[in-house]
Amino acid sequence: MIITHRGHTPTIDPTATIAPTAVIAGDVTIGPGVRVLWGAVLTSEDGAITVGEDVLVMENAVVRARAGHDVHIGASTLIGAHAHVNGATVGASCFIATGASLFPGARLGEGVEVRIRGVVQVNSWLDDGAIVPIHWVAVGRPATILPPDRHDEIWAIQRDLDFPGTVYGVERGTPMTELMRQQSAWYEAHSGDELAE
After folding, report:
1. Closest C-alpha to 105, from 77, 79, 138
2. What is the distance between the alpha carbons of residues 169 and 185, in angstroms, rounded to a whole number?
3. N or C: which end of the chain has fewer CB within 10 A?
4. 124 CB contacts (<8 Å, ≥6 apart)?
5. Diameter of the chain by CA atoms?
6. CA angle at residue 24 from 126 to 34, to 5 degrees?
7. Over the stretch 127-175, which tens digit does the pLDDT of each residue have?
8. Nearest to residue 22, comparing CAs of 49, 50, 43, 1?
9. The whole model's pTM is what?
């Protein structure tokens, strides 16, 4: 489905292929030779998404831009099944494996691999050719790559990266009732969405 959202209609190169159950919503630009497979969602929430040439977005992946955090996916990149790319910049020729998560402000250089269920935390940057092993976490600028069992070390770096401010625009400690009320109001903008084709 191609959706006009917040006054923006996606731009899709005629050589791209979008599966019938994929959703492309809002300020999204899809380049030549891109393939977006079944159930994938590319949605712009007050930010823009640009997908470069010959990118493959696998089944059920979610790519989301947000205010202050556009998404750019470089050419010849794979976004694996069930991956989550949220407000991140991904260089060319990257491999984002099944179930990987990239958070707002993340920046990946060229040829980066984020392997199965790997995480690149908010505002964390990876140099060209970096590898995040299966289930590991990249955190910081430049990123330190740590196994998930070293939570205290991950948190020591992540604490100062301002996850709540970057992702939700609130201070740490904001009550969930307030946060979810705010998020519900923000996503209400989808009530005005229209099928573009």
Report:
1. 138
2. 14
3. C
4. 103, 105, 106, 107, 138, 139, 140, 141, 143, 161
5. 49
6. 60
7. 999 999 999 999 999 999 999 999 999 999 998 998 888 988 899 999 9
8. 1
9. 0.93
